[in-house]
Amino acid sequence: MIAAIVSVGVLGALLGVIIGVVAKAFAVEVDERIEGVGDLLPGANCGGCGYAGCADFAKAVVGETATPDQCPVCSAEDISNIAGYLGIVAEEKEKMVAVVRCSGNASNTVRSLYNGVRDCRSAVLVAGGAKGCDYGCLGFGSCADACPFGAIEIRDALAIVHPELCVGCENCVAVCPKNLIVMVPASVDVHVYCNSPEKGAAKRKVCKTACIACRKCVKASGEEDHMLVDGFLVKTNYDNPPPTDLVEASACPTTALRLASKHAAGGYEGVSK
Amino acid sequence: MSDKPRKFKGGVHPNDSKALSATKPIQEAPLLESYKVIMHQNIGGPPELVVKKGDTVKKGDLLAKASGFVSVPLHAPTSGTIKAIDKCAGPTGIHVPAIEITADGEDEWGEAFAPIADWKNTDPATLKQRVWDAGIVGMGGAGFPCHVKLSPPEGKTIDTLILNGAECEPYLTADHRIMLEQAEEVVLGAAILARILGLKTAIIGIENNKPDAIAKLNEVAGKYNVRVQGLPVNYPQGAEKQLIYAITGREVSPGKLPMDVHCVVQNVASAAAVAGAVIKGRPSIERITTVTGKPVVQPGNWKFRIGTPISKALELVGGVSEQPAKLLLGGPMMGIAQNSLDVTVMKNTSGILLISADEVSFYTSEPCIRCGRCVECCPMSILPATISQAVENKRFDWAEELNVMNCIECGSCSYVCPSHRPLNQHFKRAKIEIQAQLRKKK
Q: What are the start and end residues of every segment in region (Disordered) (chain B) (predicted)?
């Protein structure tokens, strides 16, 4: 009995000493700043920075292979906090948000019946996606599934981005089989919700809210080139963005020109002719 | 090589519904006022346009030339003027570039190719060039350029030419009628293809449910040293790998091609087109297509020019007796659902199939009950049930490990699944995602 207690006790003490020595001798030096930066990061692990997760990004920031502003989720304040913690100067960055360039929901567009897999990337394999318009949003929500922040809502078979929830991680951009999603500066609210390069008449046949390139918005912006004409499609000039009252002033006949905030709030539903 | 055909593993026996049109002789469609010829009708590179708006063309004139080796030229289906080079609804549901021709009603041949009557003493390379120049693609459905299959790379020897007359797809009878009415051309085409490949003989494989076609071909086959082989009735008997196994007993390994087991497979309609191109000097501008289905008033087999809109084709067959619920190009197992009647007949359109509302069921997909029916029927011996679960969880890497790339998309698994799971669509998706991954890696 006593022999057992003594022998196990001695063995325990001996191994304890060995572990202690080895831990000291082979210690891996960890920069404690990595943990510090990690605590300041949002911890969403969205991958929007291009690194495997927040911890990996923190390591890169401390190792100076990345800059804090590469995190798309952090606000300007968060970034300056991280920069302050590391004693570096952070660059000002513009917050970007995603826009789904389509306004053709179920009531606005021609659709055929589809009974297959409820996923855009699978649906596109059957007759191009059962939508009259080749370029439009299919509305099965592959982008919404990819969004870790719940910023994309599928309403009436149309993907709608809530700009206030979108952090700009770009996870949705690559999954859209129609390449409808683009990243735009969050400060711009006026967008053209159409991406079809077809002629106006062909577009109108399949969609009530297509951009028919009537150029009313181009004219309304006067001398300023706020809006750019690209074939049969008008696009917002993000280098010289239009003021929000342009939407009102141009009275877009198809309501393809919209305010992102009003679009997200459902302000354009039922207005198209 | 034994004469007794083997039965491949798996397969299904759908109701073939061929009786609707099997006895209807091929009718030539009257000349239309305009045709919309889809530019890209082959697998591989799209051809390069050689005409412009306003040009006058004669029947058989070149509209677009091959842009590379895996690409075929395109010819005018009739004489007339090029009205526009615009877009047209394509078979995959996306609008694709098409050449619109307004017919002048003369239907006059242009400078066609010189007929090669003495093909037996013509250099195989010249014959192969003719097949390419005539723009012949695999008419079974895929549209793979014919001449590419006739050009095995250095080091690959070919010892067997198989002509695919199985036509296992339900409803379709176009190949059946071709074999009956153009038996001579089919066999002649087979002999020409054999000469190009440096072979003495060819084998025509036909499912045993077409005894009249087997008898008819047997009458003429001897003349050209071609053998006709009856095959057990089992879908997908007409799939390339299954056909090779049934006739030669050779198995094409995953990721390999028929030429790896020294075989070349061509469709019987392609063979007839080859005979036309060589003997008569005719380019590929026509397509024999079955227009069928319950809603069709007069189902039948028609010879359409390429570029004939489906809406016109349906008018020709007397229209429809009831509102169809579904339109497919091809058969019910592998055909592609369409959402527009503006799609036009292409070189590989083997059928135009309408399905009525009472034949279509809108099922909701239920969870897999692990019954294993899909595994039993899969002719490629993969595990459809497991792969579909991997795809549902977006684990394409896992699907790849389970050999989804071997899937031939025959649809047998979706056909037997009691839970109505969209298995085939899952596999199509997985194959595309895996290929995209591979391209990224490169």
A: 1-24
Q: Are residues A61 and A165 in the same domain?
A: no
Q: What is the mean pLDDT of residues A144-150?
A: 91
**Whether A150 and A174 share a structural domain:** yes
pTM: 0.85
CA dist A221 and A214 (Å) reads: 13
The pLDDT score that the predictor gives to residue B1 is 43
State how beta strands B226-231 and B202-207 pair: parallel
Please determine, for the modelled complex, whether the ipTM score is greater than 0.90: no
Which of B95, B337, B338 is nearest residue A134 as measured by Cβ atoms?
A: B95
> Which residues in B have their CB inside 8 Å of a CB on A?
87, 92-95, 336-339, 362-363, 365, 422, 425-426, 428-429, 432-433
**Residue A134 with chain B: CB contacts under 8 Å:** 93-95
- Does A214 show up as a binding residue in the annotation? no
| Whether residue A81 is found in the same domain as residue A122 | no
What's the domain range around A213?
96-264
Q: pLDDT by residue (tens digit) across B408-429? A: 999 999 999 999 999 999 999 9
For B108-248, where are the E strands, in sequence order? 160-165, 202-207, 226-231
Per-residue burial over A212-243, b = 16 or more CB atoms within 10 Å of its CB, e = otherwise:
bbeebbbebbeeeebbeeeebbbbbebeebbe
Say if CB B434 and CB B400 are below 8 A apart. Answer: yes
Domains of chain B: 26-112+284-359 (3.10.20.600), 114-280 (3.40.50.11540), 373-441 (no CATH)
User: Do A134 and A229 lie in a common domain?
Assistant: yes
Alpha-carbon distance values, B113 to A36, B129, B280 (Å): 78, 11, 8
Q: pLDDT tens digits for A104-124?
A: 988 888 888 888 888 999 998
SS3 of residue B321 by DSSP: coil
pLDDT in tens, B131-188: 999 999 998 878 899 999 999 988 889 999 999 999 999 999 999 999 999 999 999 9
Is residue B274 a contact partner of residue B136, using CB atoms and an 8 Å limit?
yes
In tens, the pLDDT along B203-255 reads: 999 999 999 999 999 999 988 889 999 999 999 999 999 999 999 999 998 88
d(CA B191, CA B274): 10
- CA distance linking residue A135 with residue A178, whole number of Å: 6
Question: In this structure, what token pair is assigned to residue A131?
Answer: 């939508």
Task: Name the minimum distance, in Å, from the CA of A98 to any CA of chain B.
Answer: 23
CB of A109 closer than 8 Å to CB of A136: yes
Give the distance from residue B90's alpha carbon to the nearest chain A alpha carbon, in angstroms: 9
How many separate domains does chain A show?
2
Do both A58 and A126 map to the same domain? no
